[in-house]
Amino acid sequence: MRAISVGAILFVTAVGCGSSSGGSPADAGGSPEDSGPGSSGSGASSGAPSGSDAAASGSSNGADASSPEASTTDAGTSDAAPAVDASSDAGTPVSMYVTFYGWADNSPPGNAIAYPKGDGYPTVHAGAGGSGTYDDPITFATDEAELAPGTRVYLPFAQKYAMMEDDCVECDSDWASSHKRHIDVWMNSNGTEKTSSLLDCEDQWTMNATAVEVDPPAGITVSAGPLFDPSTNVCRATP
Fold first, then answer.
1. How many domains does the chain have?
2. What does DSSP assign to residue 190?
3. Is residue 70 in some structural domain?
4. Can you give the pTM of this predicted structure?
5. Of 154, 149, 179, nearest in space to 165 by CA
6. Residue 51 to residue 106: CA distance in whole angstroms
7. 203 part of a folded domain
8. 118-162: per-residue pLDDT in tens?
9. Are 172 and 75 in contact (CB under 8 A)?
10. 3-state DSSP call for residue 158?
11. How far does Cα 237 stand from its chain's mean position?
């Protein structure tokens, strides 16, 4: 999980992102506040946690009681974004706000996550990580009401698969208040990197609104290597 500190421009956090302090379901904690590319900060996750959507609002069209339409129930239309059903075979493209968090801005610092595999969740990691392949997706955090733990997504802009394995306080708030789709993706880190370089890379890869494929099939192109290398403090500019 990630503890958030408001940064410049678009709600970016320079501290704290998706990891949980425990490993149990109840440990889901903090979350991120992030911003668009080039802004300072990254998403925050609970043990650590993916888009902008409209606030839920219903509007119904009235039907004259004397007309045929009056015999049917007129369902109100709503601008609220429904939770994505990630159970179909085909991937579903969804526009999301995508932020990043790493070792330094996880809360507490480290790679702990809210939904580790060892606690019985349908996830693949014990701690935040992943190379981005279908079988080894990168950890991401979000509200479990938006995407359930174990949900796999594909990030076209980074050419990586990712899996919901952590909670994200800001993501929770975004979903609860306006159904804004927000995921916070783990940035490769291990505590040996230069913190400022890590945070800069998180900001560089943050996307205000980008297409994310939910429940994608296997076999999509995956770029080799991490977006950030903690041994050299180098952030990749392209996938």
1. 1
2. -
3. no
4. 0.67
5. 149
6. 21
7. yes
8. 999 999 999 999 999 999 999 999 999 999 999 999 999 999 999
9. no
10. coil
11. 20
